[in-house]
Amino acid sequence: MPLLIKDYTWTQTESMIYITVPLKEARAGKVDILSADEYLKVSAPPFLFEAFLSAAVDDSKSAAKIGDGEIVFTLHKREGAIWEHLVLQNVEKENLQNIRQNAILKAQENALKEAEAKAAKKKANEKYALETIMKIEEDQRKKIEEIKEVERRRAAEELERWKEKQRIEAEHKIAQQKLEAEKRNTNGVKDLPKSDTQTGTKSAQSKKPLVVSLPPPRSAGTIQINFTPRVFPTALRESLVPEEEEWLKKQADARKALNNDLSELKDLTEEEKNPEWLKEKGNKLFASQNYLAAVNAYNLAIKLNNKLPSLFLNRAACHLKLRNLHKAIEDSSRALELLTPPVPDNSESRVKAHIRRGTAFCELELYVEGLQDYDAALKINPHNKAVAADAEKIRQVIQGTVPSS
Predict the structure, then answer these.
(1) Predicted pLDDT at 102
(2) What is the pLDDT of residue 235?
(3) Checking DSSP bridges between strand 63-67 and strand 47-52, what pairing results, if any?
(4) Regarding beta strands 63-67 and 70-76, do their DSSP bridges make them parallel or antiparallel, or are they unpaired?
(5) Which residues of the chain have pLDDT under 50?
(6) With respect to CATH, is domain 3-111 assigned 3.40.640.10?
(7) Cβ–Cβ < 8 Å for 24, 63
(8) Measuring CA to CA, how many Å separate 394 from each of 131, 354, 367, 378?
(9) HSE of 346 in the Cβ direction (CA atoms, 13 Å)?
(10) Which of 24, 175, 205, 257 is the most exposed place for a label (fewest CB within 10 A)?
(11) Phi (first) and psi of residue 27, to 5 degrees
(12) Distance (Å, rounded) from C-alpha 96 to C-alpha 39?
C-alpha cells in the first residue's frame, strides 16, 4: 500500500495556485505525474500524493517543475478568486472516484491525440523528405542531361570545323594542282616560227604542230593506315568515353552473370529444366505456406524463361507473404510489362498484378499509389465488389475519415 504524502505546502493569488510536494527519498526519474482540471496525482513509489482540487484550474496552462527533492506545481485558476481550501472537503468517496476516473480518461485522450499528432507530423516529414530527395534526383538528372547536350553540341561543332578545314585543304590542293599543270604546259610548248617582218605573211611550210612534254607516270605505292581498335562504330572524338566504359562494364557483368547461371543449370534434371514444371512446384509450395521455397522455384523458372508473366505474378504473391514489399512491387510491375497488349485473355492476370502492387504500396503507407492500382483493377473488372470495397477503404484512409491500419 502506498504511503500518502501529506506534508505539502501551498500558496495562492487571485489567479494562481502554487503547490510544493516533497519527493522524500524517491528518485526524480521514477516520478509519474497526472494533472487534470480538478485532480492532481504524483506517484513516486512507495509514496503517493493525490489532491482533489476545490475548484477547476486550466490544465493546458499549468506546469510542474521537478528539482531539489521536490515538485512545484504552478496552476492557473479558471476563475479569479481566493480559495478557502486547496482540496474538497467532506465529499463522498464515490464522487472522488468519478473525478479520478474522469481525469484518467482525459489524460488518455490527450495522450492519444499527442500520439496521433506526432504520427501525422512524422508522416508529413517523411513525405517532405521523399519529395525533397525526388526533387534533388530530378535536378541531378536534368543537370546530367544538360551536360550531355553541351558535350553533344561541342562534338558537333568540332566535327563541322574539321569538315570545313578538310574542304578548304581540298580546294587549296586542287588549285595547286591546276597551277602546276599550267606551268608544265607552258614550259613544254616549243617556239612557234616568227612572222615574216618584211612581207607580213607567215610561211605555210614553216608551221609545225605544238608538242607538249607530259610528266612521266607516277610510281605506284601503298600507304599503311592503322586504326585505333574500338567497340563502338562512332569516332572517338564524337563519343563520351566515361559512358562507353560504363556500358562495356555492364555488358561484361551481364555476360559473367549469364555464364554463372548456365553453370548452375548444368546440374539440373530434365524436369527441373522445364519452367512449367518449376511453376507448378512453386504453386504447391505456396499452397503449403512454404513461401521461401516457392520463391526459389520461381527464381529458377525465371532464369530459364523470363518472358512468362505468371512467374513474376506468383513470385510477387510470395514476396507479399514474406513482407518483401519492394520486391513485390517490382515483380508486379514486370508482370504488367509482359501482359501487353491488354486483351480480354489476360485481363484476370492484369487485375491480380494491379491488386498485388496496390497492396504492397498500401503496406508501405503509400496509399495514393495503392489507390491508383486498385482503380486500374476496377477499370479492367468493374464488377469485382471486393476490389471496390478495398478501394473505398483506401480512399477513406487518404481522406482521414477512418484510422489507418
Answers:
(1) 86
(2) 63
(3) unpaired
(4) antiparallel
(5) 189-204, 404-405
(6) no
(7) no
(8) 21, 14, 6, 14
(9) 16
(10) 205
(11) -85, 145
(12) 9
- Is-contact 5 47, C-beta < 8 A? yes
The overall longest dimension of the chain from CA atoms, in Å, is: 168
Q: What is the separation of C-alpha 156 from the centre of its chain, rounded to a whole number of angstroms? A: 35
What's the confidence (pLDDT) of residue 231? 63
CB 15 within 8 A of CB 77: yes
What is d(CA 311, CA 277) in angstroms, rounded to the nearest whole number? 12
98, three cell numbers: 468519478
- Per the DSSP assignment, residues forming a β-bridge with 369 are none
pLDDT recorded at residue 196: 46
- pLDDT score of 328: 94
Say whether 212 sits in a helix, a strand or coil: coil
Distance CA 185, CA 177 (A): 12
Q: At what angle do helices 309-321 and 275-287 cross, to 10 degrees?
A: 20
| Inter-residue contact 325 to 316 (CB < 8 Å) | no
CA distance 63 to 17: 11
User: Given this model, what pLDDT does residue 29 score?
Assistant: 60
Q: Which residues pair with 4 in a beta bridge?
A: 48
- ∠ CA(170), CA(171), CA(172), 5° rounding? 90
> Is the pTM of the predicted complex or chain greater than 0.90?
no
- C-alpha distances in Å from residue 148, one per residue of 97, 145, 160: 76, 5, 18
AA letter at 290: N
Angle among Cα 315, 318, 321 to the nearest 5 degrees reads 155
Rounded-to-integer distance, Cα 243 and Cα 30, Å? 62
Rounded Cα–Cα distance for residues 210 and 212 (Å):
7
Burial class (CB in 10 A: 0-12, 13-18, 19+), 282: buried
